[in-house]
Amino acid sequence: MGFTPRYTRPEAGNKYYIRKAQGGYSNAIYGSPTDSACNVLANCVGYAYGRFNEIGQYGYCKYLAPVNAENFMDYKGSCKTGMTPKVGACMVWEGKGDLAGHVAIVEKVIDNNHVVTSESGYGSSTPFWTQDRYNTNGRWGCGTNYPFKGFIYNPAVPDEPEPPAPTPSDKFNIGDEVILNGPIYVSSTAASQANYISNKRTQITRKVPGTAHPYNTTGDLGWCDESSLTKVEPAPTPTPTELKVGDTVIITGYGNGSSYGDSNRAGGIGWERTILKIWVGRRFPYQVGNSTGTTGFYQANALRKK
């Protein structure tokens, strides 16, 4: 049976979200405020209990139990658990102190650190919602009072086949100048990201081909994927016949706020400016401006000598 994600609220009369006393399949308590169409909503427990079983279309609630959310793990029965997201799985958070925890259902897996969930919440004015959850803090988007306990995998959803092992990469080599823009990891095989680096010019210092995150860079920022790196190509060295310091030029294309090319885009198309300095070997070597300061850094094809 294929998995069909739920991105809309349960329809009126859906028995997986209606108490047995009213002809449904659920043993959960009434929601608060009680939804007129599905009376176990609004409540995270009533929703997740119903949705987990609705996925299997059993005609009754076969798995889990409508206990406090943090106790779902104790009533997992034969269901497997783990810390890696899978579609159809129930996410379980503990609640510190008097808090009863929280549960949600994974409707889509973007990657191991990003999922789309369907949820409800006791006391919520909205009986159903979907949410993008990111594992940036180890709690999948919840606060410090809600430690994450794990995923309960749904027996009705078969495991996806294991992806093929990554092939060794030769795209980047030790010593290459690169721009790092993406997640970083504590090791070349780590499952969860440790941080995110934005537009950092750096250099490849270590390489472990065949791993998930094969590259490390200057300053040991962390291990990163090939897709997070852009090689910095050296700019051609100006010759005497090209533009020189002091030349008046018309800006004809976009530049950058840095000669390295790792800042915001610089405009000024149509402006008349002077070449103030040439940064030989950099991506945007021509620093142009006027008496009030620097306008930006440009490549030769974005300037026309007047």
Short description:
With 306 residues, this protein is mostly beta strands.
H and E order: HEEEEEEEEEEEEEEEEE
| Spans of at least 5 consecutive residues with low confidence | none
Helix content percent band: under 10%
Radius of gyration: 28 Å
Q: What count of domains describes the coordinates?
A: 3
Biggest sheet character: 6 strands, antiparallel
Overall mean pLDDT: 91
Q: Which architecture name of the largest domain does CATH use?
A: Alpha-Beta Complex
Global structural class? mainly beta
Q: What coarse outline follows from CA principal-axis ratios?
A: elongated
Secondary-structure blueprint of this entry?
Blueprint: H1 44-56, E1 81-82, E2 90-93, E3 102-111, E4 114-119, E5 129-134, E6 148-152, E7 177-184, E8 195-207, E9 215-217, E10 229-231, E11 248-251, E12 255-256, E13 265-266, E14 272-278, E15 286-290, E16 293-298, E17 303-305
Antiparallel strand pairs: 1-6, 2-3, 2-6, 3-4, 4-5, 7-8, 7-10, 8-9, 11-14, 11-17, 12-13, 14-15, 15-16
Write up this protein:
The protein has about 300 residues and is mostly beta strands. The protein folds into 3 domains: about 15-150, endopeptidase fold (from Nostoc punctiforme) (Alpha-Beta Complex), CATH 3.90.1720.10; about 175-230; about 250-305. About 5% of the residues lie in helices and about 30% in strands. It has 1 helix and 17 strands. The protein has one helix at about 45-55, and strands spanning about 80, 90-95, 100-110, 115-120, 130-135, 150, 175-185, 195-205, 215, 230, 250, 255, 265, 270-280, 285-290, 295-300, 305. The strands form 4 sheets. Strands 1-6-2-3-4-5 form a 6-stranded antiparallel sheet, covered by helices on one side. Strands 16-15-14-11-17 form a 5-stranded antiparallel sheet, with no helix packed on it. A 4-stranded antiparallel sheet has the order 9-8-7-10, with no helix packed on it. Strand 8 (about 195-205) and strand 9 form a beta hairpin. The longest helix has 13 residues, at about 45-55. It is elongated and about 85 Å long. The model has no long low-confidence stretch (mean pLDDT about 90).
